[in-house]
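Annex B, item 7. Sequence and structure tokens for protein A, then protein B.
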Amino acid sequence: MKQITFIVTIVLFVCCSASNKLKAEPMSEKLYITVNGTTFTATLVDNSSAQALVDALKKAPITYEAHDYGNFEKVGDLGQLFPTNDESITTEPGDLILYQGHNLCIYYDVNTWTFTRLGRIDNATQQELKAALGNGNVSITLSLSEIKTGINDVKSSPATDNRKFDLQGRQISTATVGQIYIENGQKKVKISK
């Protein structure tokens, strides 16, 4: 009987240890997420899905279009398939989730489903996430280093100069709703039509 108890104890220990290794241990690599002129950093979990994303990002940044879904996430197709490590998860604002192997979801509210955890945005509140992600469709860029906006030097101009520039430094005639732009040396967001 002691031998059976000992064997059961070892089996449980090995199973529990293996199960804990599947939990979200952080990777040392940081992910940079740029959306509407705001860049967030994220800590990735240590699983084959996050590692495959890092490997893809070592080749080039990934830019994808995301849309609102269910009033709790921005989701979009990454254009390539990554391995999955699905588990039942209840998300929190800031969670990065891989869904069906090719969709990246950035959560700004709570949801419970079976999908793959990739990581979590560092130190961002729900309000900050909602403000940056905006309403409607948005372009999101993932990279392993911070992407510069293209504006290296801002020179002041007279207050009567109402020229507008996008974040890449190109002059624009008008800003679209939700667009971040520079006017009179100040960063602005167009809120309404």
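Protein B:
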Amino acid sequence: MKLKPLGDRIVVKPSTEEEVTKSGIVLPDTVEKEKKEEGEVVAVGSGEKINKLNLKVGDVVIFSKYGGDEVTVEEIEYKVLKDEDVLAVLEK
């Protein structure tokens, strides 16, 4: 990837899961629905605040619903988030 975050920012690839209704109907991506609020960290900036969070590439994080900026690189969508947009890390 050619995208490197500056300062207290990280680059996250949002999770994309098929949404299934209770009755088992799979909703395609064309259906208007809420965006996922979690994703995998693919790059970490070198800022002091982001380093205190001890995030590393491969971590799965939960972030603010409307936080960050969407960017598309090589036809893949990413979110560039500030340190304050990261709410939690999902532990495996």
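Comment on protein B: The beta strands are 9-14, 19-20, 26-27, 38-44, 60-63, 69-73, 76-82, 86-90.
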